[in-house]
Each structure stands twice: as structure tokens, then as C-alpha cells.
């Protein structure tokens, strides 16, 4: 199709800008709601490209929207740019080597995610000018996808209410359209307050908040036997009450992630986990404060949008790699753990069947994969998908078998494979957006399909009314 080639050429013409900004965001490596440099870099570029930029949308200081055009349809391209805590790592080095130990790093590829969507929006704007096309293109700079569910706040504040179609992608080691089925997810702080005392001289005068956290964790771990198989509960002790064992800890805090396929299921588990916390407080003579800080909804894929994405992925694949790029990927595939290697083998068997051994010989999977089953992770794209017909896909940006949220992703984040995958994703996004921008009947068909899938259900909106985006 001529427009696919035209848009691809426009993206290639500006790839220097795209990859430069992607590498900048990688270097900034800012975590949730602290992405000041990252969001500014992308927002300023969009302003230079002729977009109207509005900063601080939805009450999030590091969120923005860049808009071009007017009228319907309104096509949203979603970007992210937040990093993960504690994953600082030097680029292109196949061993653990932090730049600054303990600092953040892009262990989920969001430096690539945001810039591909940005590049697609710029190419579409230039094509709209050339072809005199009506409609509106928006690039949403979305902070805090990791841990805080930033898009849920944007949805709550109505930032997507007039959008007709939303498109996004995610870096990974397979090329494929994302099916429905991510896990809904609540993040909840449990803060216990007790009484401090001398742990040897007067232990009877103390009430240990750390004991309360440990008792709660034990109860929740016993609870796992009595919840649905698809649920996931995990926690991190944020504040253990200090480093002195001879002081009864008067304060301790634990952060829980509670996941299940549906928000209703998460709400039920949330209440049960909170009862464990209340019981632990009662049993230890402490008090507990419960604060839900985020809520992710499950992802609802619109089949009509997914079909357009799939068509263009198949058209634009294979990406094509040089021998040097294949060798680059091999050196990172060689340092994955034995457990990750077993996961790679299982995935190859599921996808390739009798040809699984051939897949394992390929350090980069340069082909289309197909799945009807969603993953076990969580994404705040799910919240957008409840209010706008949405499509999402993954594209190869690192070696096959690379584990998620790991130093290996950070190390590959500025490499040639990551760069090629980013440009490929931008081309798929631009071509898919063009389809809906120029075909009102396709937009109508997508909305009808989306409403049929929802089957009368409405956005669960699980954020507490008093929850605000903040750094925690």
C-alpha cells in the first residue's frame, strides 16, 4: 500500500531525531511521576514539529498531550517514559554493571515505547499536511505506568473522553498483537503504628509494628491456597522500622500488589488482604492505616483495531537483521538464567511445535506470533481500553528469552536491535492510525465491535475518589 511506504519513509527520514530522544530518555531513567526531563524532551520535540502541547494534564505534572489537526476522528497514540527503580546498568554490556548502584534504569523499554508513538504522530502530521487530511492526531505522554498506573488518573479526569481510537505498543522479544486479558491490579500500602521500647530492658512496654507486618504477610501467604488460580499477590516491605534490633519497631510499612483477571475479583481479594492486616494489628496491639494508591483495569482488545494492526505488522515484517545485530543479540541471550532459558524453550515449543529447535537457534524472532490468551502482567492501557476502542502490540527490541524488568533489557535499550524495533513499531502505529483517520466507517465498525465486547459493562473506575498522583 502506498501510504504505508510513504509513512515509513517519513519515519526513516526522521529516525535520527527519534533514536536520539529515545537514547536521551534511556539516560535520564526517571521513575514514576519524576519523569521531568523525559517528558520535557518529548514534549519540546512535538512542539518543534508543529503540535499544540499541553503540559500537566489530568493532575499529573509529567503528563502531556501533543495535538495536531481538528475535528473527528480523534486518534490517540499512547507513549510512556518511566523507568524502574534499582536497575541502573551500562549499555551494551552483557554482565551486571550498574552505572550508579541502586539508581533507576529502563528495564521495561519505555524509552523506546514513547518515542515510537511520538515518531508515528510526527509522520502522520506531515502526511496530513501533504494530503490535506481532516481529523485530529494526539500523542499522549503518559507517566508512571510502572507501579502507579498513571493512565488511570488520566482516564478518571476525562483526558480520553473525546477520543475515537487509541493505539499503542510495547517492546519485547516477540512480534504480535496483544489479546485481551491483562490482570487488573491494586497497589496498596499498609502502614502499622506501634510503641517503641527497649527490646531487652522493657519489651513488655513495646508493641512491634514489624511483628504486625510479618503476621500479616504470613496470613496472606496462607490465604493463597484459597483464591482463584489466576490471582497474584506479592509484596515488598518498604519500611522495616529501622536497623536496631534492640529497639521495638514502632512503625513499619508494606506495599502489596493484588492482581486478578477482573477488577471485581481484585476488590474481593483486596478486602480479604485488608482483613489480614486488621487481624495482624489486633493481634499485635498496633494500628494499621490502609492506603490504595493505584488501580489498573484489565485490558480489553478491540478486534477491529487489532485486525488493522496485525495487517500492517504482517506487511512490514520481517524487520531484517545484519550478522552483527544477530551476534549482538546472541551475547545477551547467552547470559539469561537457566529459568529464563526453560521459559524460552517452553515458548518455542508452544509457538513452533515440531520446529521448536529451529526457533531456539534464532537469537531474534523476526516473524509474527499469534496468541488468543493475554499475559499475566498488568498495564494501565487497560483503563484506556475501557473508554476508547484500543489496539496494542509487541515488537522485538531485545534478544529472545530476555526476562522482563531485568538488567538485560536496560543493557540492550540503546542497541541496534532496540532501535530497529522502535522504528518498526512507529511504522505499524502510523499505518494503523492512518486507516482510522481516513475511514469513518472503519471507526464506526471499531466502536460497534468494542461495545459488543463490553456487552453492557462500563469502566470499573477502581481508583479511590481521594487518590491523587504522587511520588511515594
> How many angstroms does the end-to-end distance come to?
48 Å
Order of helices and strands: HHHEEEHEHEEEHEEHEHHHHHEHHH
Fraction of residues in helix: 40-55%
Backbone CA Rg: 23 Å
Q: Provide the CATH superfamily of the largest domain.
A: Zn peptidases
Helix-strand category: alpha/beta
Enumerate the strands of the largest sheet in spatial order, edge to edge or round the barrel. Answer: 1-2-4-3-5-11-6
How many beta-strand segments?
A: 11
Overview of the structural elements:
This protein is α/β, with parallel strands linked by helices and 472 residues long. The chain folds into two domains: 2-181 and 298-454, 3-Layer(aba) Sandwich (Aminopeptidase), CATH 3.40.630; 184-296, Alpha-Beta Plaits. The chain has helices at 2-13, 15-28, 36-48, 110-131, 150-156, 209-223, 263-284, 303-316, 323-333, 338-352, 356-360, 381-385, 407-412, 416-437, 440-454, and strands spanning 52-55, 64-70, 74-80, 135-142, 165-172, 176-177, 184-193, 232-239, 251-260, 287-296, 390-396. The radius of gyration is 23 Å and the shape is globular. The mean pLDDT is 96.
Amino acid at each position: 500500500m502506498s501510504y504505508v511506504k510513504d509513512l515509513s519513509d517519513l519515519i526513516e527520514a526522521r529516525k535520527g531525531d527519534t533514536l536520539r530522544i529515545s537514547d536521551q530518555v534511556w539516560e535520564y531513567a526517571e521513575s514514576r511521576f519524576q519523569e521531568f526531563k523525559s517528558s520535557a524532551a518529548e514534549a519540546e520535540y512535538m512542539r518543534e514539529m508543529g503540535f499544540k502541547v499541553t503540559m500537566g494534564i489530568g493532575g499529573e505534572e509529567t503528563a502531556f498531550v501533543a495535538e495536531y489537526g481538528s475535528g473527528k476522528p480523534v486518534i490517540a497514540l499512547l507513549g510512556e517514559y518511566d523507568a524502574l527503580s534499582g536497575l541502573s546498568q551500562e549499555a551494551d554490556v552483557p554482565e551486571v554493571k550498574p552505572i550508579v548502584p541502586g539508581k533507576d534504569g529502563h528495564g521495561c523499554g519505555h524509552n523506546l515505547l514513547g518515542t515510537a508513538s511520538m515518531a508515528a504522530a510526527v509522520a502522520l502530521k506531515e502526511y496530513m499536511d501533504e494530503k490535506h487530511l481532516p481529523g485530529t492526531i494526539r500523542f499522549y505522554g503518559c507517566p508512571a505506568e510502572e507501579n502507579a498506573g498513571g493512565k488511570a488518573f488520566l482516564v478518571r479526569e476525562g483526558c480520553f473522553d473525546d477520543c475515537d481510537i487509541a493505539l499503542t505498543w510495547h517492546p519485547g522479544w516477540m512480534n504480535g498483537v496483544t489479546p485481551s486479558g491483562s490482570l487488573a491490579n491494586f497497589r496498596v500500602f499498609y502502614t502499622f503504628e506501634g510503641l517503641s521500647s527497649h527490646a531487652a530492658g522493657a519489651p513488655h512496654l513495646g508493641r512491634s509494628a514489624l511483628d504486625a507486618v510479618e503476621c500479616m504477610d504470613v496470613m496472606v501467604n496462607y490465604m493463597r491456597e484459597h483464591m482463584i488460580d489466576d490471582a497474584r499477590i506479592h509484596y515488598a516491605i518498604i519500611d522495616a522500622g529501622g536497623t536496631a534490633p534492640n529497639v521495638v519497631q514502632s512503625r513499619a510499612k508494606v506495599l502489596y500488589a493484588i492482581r486478578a483477571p477482573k477488577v471485581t475479583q481484585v476488590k474481593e481479594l483486596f478486602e480479604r488482604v485488608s482483613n489480614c492486616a486488621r487481624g495482624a494489628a489486633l493481634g499485635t496491639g498496633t494500628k494499621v492505616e490502609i492506603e490504595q494508591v493505584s488501580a489498573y483495569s484489565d485490558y480489553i482488545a478491540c478486534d477491529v483495531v487489532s485486525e488493522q494492526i496485525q495487517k500492517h505488522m504482517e506487511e512490514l515484517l520481517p524487520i531484517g537483521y545484519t550478522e552483527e545485530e544477530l551476534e549482538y543479540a546472541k551475547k545477551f541471550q547467552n547470559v539469561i538464567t537457566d529459568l529464563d532459558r526453560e521459559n524460552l524453550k517452553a515458548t518455542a515449543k508452544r509457538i513452533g511445535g515440531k520446529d521448536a529447535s529451529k526457533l531456539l537457534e534464532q537469537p531474534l524472532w523476526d516473524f509474527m506470533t499469534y496468541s488468543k490468551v493475554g499475559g499475566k502482567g498488568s498495564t494501565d492501557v487497560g483503563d484506556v481500553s475501557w473508554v476508547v476502542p484500543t489496539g496494542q502490540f509487541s515488537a522485538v527490541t531485545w534478544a529472545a528469552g530476555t526476562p522482563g524488568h531485568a538488567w538485560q533489557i536496560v543493557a540492550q535499550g540503546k542497541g541496534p536491535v532496540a532501535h530497529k524495533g522502535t522504528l518498526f513499531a512507529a511504522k505499524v502505529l502510523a499505518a494503523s492510525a492512518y486507516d482510522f483517520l481516513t475511514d469513518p466507517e472503519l471507526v464506526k465498525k471499531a466502536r460497534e465491535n468494542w461495545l459488543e465486547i463490553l456487552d453492557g459493562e462500563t469502566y470499573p473506575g477502581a481508583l479511590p475518589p481521594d487518590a491523587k498522583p504522587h511520588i511515594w
